[in-house]
Amino acid sequence: MVGKGAKGMLNGAVPSEATKRDQNLKRGNWGNQIEFVLTSVGYAVGLGNVWRFPYLCYRNGGGAFMFPYFIMLIFCGIPLFFMELSFGQFASQGCLGVWRISPMFKGVGYGMMVVSTYIGIYYNVVICIAFYYFFSSMTHVLPWAYCNNPWNTHDCAGVLDASNLTNGSRPAALPSNLSHLLNHSLQRTSPSEEYWRLYVLKLSDDIGNFGEVRLPLLGCLGVSWLVVFLCLIRGVKSSGKVVYFTATFPYVVLTILFVRGVTLEGAFDGIMYYLTPQWDKILEAKVWGDAASQIFYSLGCAWGGLITMASYNKFHNNCYRDSVIISITNCATSVYAGFVIFSILGFMANHLGVDVSRVADHGPGLAFVAYPEALTLLPISPLWSLLFFFMLILLGLGTQFCLLETLVTAIVDEVGNEWILQKKTYVTLAVAVAGFLLGIPLTSQAGIYWLLLMDNYAASFSLVVISCIMCVAIMYIYGEHSSLRPPATRPLARPLCPAGLLTPHLSRAPELLPGHPDDAGIPTAPLLSDLLALRLSRHHLPPGSGPPPPPPESSSLRVAPGAERAPPPAPTARGSAGA
């Protein structure tokens, strides 16, 4: 009995425990590991997978773009994804709290918050527009199918209107004179484009002319923020249950649309246009830049969300496995969505008798103009429209959950007292209300200009800068080996770069990182230094090396009750000789 108790204390647990506690009772954890994986998949798989990747692929060489894309995934995406997951899981802190390892670089955490704030504001506006189109699809005839609406102009030329001119039938291809008119007339606008510009947005003529706030969009914006708040009302405990639906059902809708799309005439032409490689494009630097930016944007690296979601993991979770699974799932979804999009666009191009490039678009132009117009050509078009926009809503909500939770967790962890932990729901409500108020200008007549401006610049090159600074801070200032050891047994970090020589106080930065509560052992989940330095086997200190552990009251790492009473093991003759 005595031997058993001593063994328990040596393992960092009280004698009554069989194993070390692996949970954070103060902040809480995911209900199970599936919730974390589904939440991370929902966070990474967003609107960009549907409206951004297919366009980048066909614009940058089709199938040839897959080569730089997967190169960036292997050498940039997965390592950075793994680094952020392990960083957040080890510290059990949000994107601000983790920078106790080096307070000088806390600005990186604030940068992540700024990026998440920008994206969270305009992302929910896109979701609200998808809500608006979803409600508008609840009709027998889609309102953007014909040109006989009050908002249509004389330049409107719809596909179905043209079909009605030819004996009321829907031919496989339009007559040559009408096809020529649709191809080359600079005045031709589709009914879906006029519905988007003249009815939904009532678009102004300048970015500075805000005009009036579109009340239907404002109402949908309120609905979208209300849904996000209700799903996060109990933090990860409630959002972890919601993602069982929001992260999986989009794949059901994608599969339904894919099966329907590939059975249409002309779908093969669209898919070939999407995949046909143009190998000369690989030599262009812009193609590699687009591949890198898409990896950063799609995986959500440097947004702060990955650190936040991983901070609710159990300490000994295998985050390396999770990072590989989530990254590959995200990129496979992007490729799969390309088949769904271009099969429908190929059918539309075949129907119009034009090249696929004439109907292909990206961003809001694809989601709210080109694809809705293609859906009008399908039988029971309101059903397909409902499915498509419901999928967009779920894809957007999955990302928006994590963006809001990132901001809330950063605020709560930064304050860190018991009162704010108990009032976390009110913090979530306050952040949601602030996001709603900041999103109101984007529902004005000039709102789409500002939305596109934020989309192009909020999360582009800034993500690369944040990621590079984060890598330098963790690898060369925090120390190559320090990230593998708890502070109680960690030696001073060596000055591995000029910053370490100029700022000697940074050598004590590892002592500032709070370890996982109720855990005094060596972490089993490795950090980025494993992958970059190829030191996967060095997870423990050699016997007798390093300074003696400080007293429990001076250590920043909280140990399990009884662990501080365990005497250190006596060094063996072999260990002393090795030292």
Automatic annotation (TrEMBL):
Record GO cellular component, one term: plasma membrane
Main localisation: membrane
InterPro entries from the UniProt entry: Na/ntran_symport, Na/ntran_symport_glycine_GLY1, SNS_sf
One Pfam family from the record: SNF
GO terms, molecular function: amino acid:sodium symporter activity; metal ion binding
Keywords of this entry: Amino-acid transport, Cell membrane, Disulfide bond, Membrane, Metal-binding, Neurotransmitter transport, Sodium, Symport, Transmembrane, Transmembrane helix, Transport
Annotated positions binding Na(+) 2: 44, 49
One Gene Ontology biological process: neurotransmitter transport
Reactions accelerated catalytically: glycine(out) + chloride(out) + 2 Na(+)(out) = glycine(in) + chloride(in) + 2 Na(+)(in)
TM segment ranges: 36-54, 66-87, 108-135, 215-236, 248-275, 295-312, 324-349, 383-404, 425-451, 457-478
Membrane topology term: Multi-pass membrane protein
Listed Low complexity bias regions: 554-565
Region (Disordered): 539-579
Family, as annotated: Belongs to the sodium:neurotransmitter symporter (SNF) (TC 2.A.22) family. SLC6A9 subfamily.
Listed name of the protein: Transporter
Source organism of the structure: Pan troglodytes (Chimpanzee)
